Every structure is written in structure tokens, then in C-alpha cells.
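Please, structure for the following, as C-alpha cells.
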Amino acid sequence: MRDSVWPLRRRDEQGERGDEHRDERGEACPATAEQLMLEVAKGDQTAFERLYPLIAGAVLGVVRRVVRDPAQSEEVAQEVLVQLWRTAPRYDPARGSVLTWALTLAHRRAVDRVRHAQAAAEREDRVAAESIDRDYDEVAEAVTANLEREQVRRCLGSLTTLQRESVVLAYYGGHTYSEVAELLSSPLGTVKTRLRDGLIRLRDCLGVA
């Protein structure tokens, strides 16, 4: 049998003479699911088609109670039936009926589908939340940086010209005191004093402890 999609409906074969089985006296009687499964285990596709209507409805019912969504339920039920065909040789009548085995497989696969869907949804939510947090942090940092720059610019404007030029050259331009003095054509001692006074005023203006 190919791994085709089997329609979840009763087969026309059900009730036909092909579904009969001979008992010990040679009299015709309906084949049980267990008898059919033994034939399916040998690769008998006809036996599987006869087994199908005996279990398909119950399999779909179990899946629907777990998965809820009709389309996904049918998809999962088809997967269970294909799994039954593939794993038929593993069936052991001593461990339970075919229907019990099929319903166990159906419930497990349905639960797996639901868990997979939940995990996927949680991953999407987590990624979305991280993206929002990241965007918010980036915007907040940009706003804070702009506000800080504006405050520094305003506070620098409150300094005298020599104080402001000394601070900008030393702390923004990276020049040494001697280089600042040379660039401003001012005595080194004067530059140091202006830098000290300027930094004190900046500290007070920025509210730095």
C-alpha cells in the first residue's frame, strides 16, 4: 500500500462478502480487527482496507477531542492510520485489541501535535516580545543620549568663552593641558584654573554629585 491519504469515511467494502472469515466449522463470519491486523502485518492491502472502517471513526474521534481543529484532526488521524499500516508487524494480540492500540497511537500523536503547536506559538510570542523590548531599548537609549547631549550643550553655554574652549579641547578633543594652553595662546596656569572652574560649573549644572 502506498502512503496515500485515506478518506475518513466508511469503505464500500464493509459488509461485502470479502469481509467474511471462516470459523473452525468452515462457516462464514465477519473477520475481527485482530484477524485483519495479522493479515495487514503480512502486507495485505485488502485486509487493511477491510480494517479501516472498523477503526477510522474511533481514531478520528479521539484526535478531535485533543486537537479540536477539524482540518488538523483529519490530518493527524490519517497519520495514525498510515502509522498502523507501517507498524502492523509490531502488533501483539496478547497485549490488547487492535482498537485499543490504534486509539493509544491516536492519542499520543494528537498530544504531540498540540504540544508542537503550543511550542511554536510560544516561540513566536517570545521572538515578538524580544523584538519589542529591543526596539524599545534602542529608542530609549537614543532619546536618553539626545537629552544628555542637549543638557551638556546647554550647560557648556553657561561657561565663559575660555572655560568652554578649555573644556571642549581637553575633554572632547583629547588634548593635554599644555596643548590646550598652546592652542588658546594662554598661560598653562590660567588654562588649568579655567578648566577647574569650568568643570565645577558643569558639575553643578548637570546635577552630578
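The chain has two domains: 17-118, 158-209. Confidence is low (pLDDT under 50) at residues 1-19.
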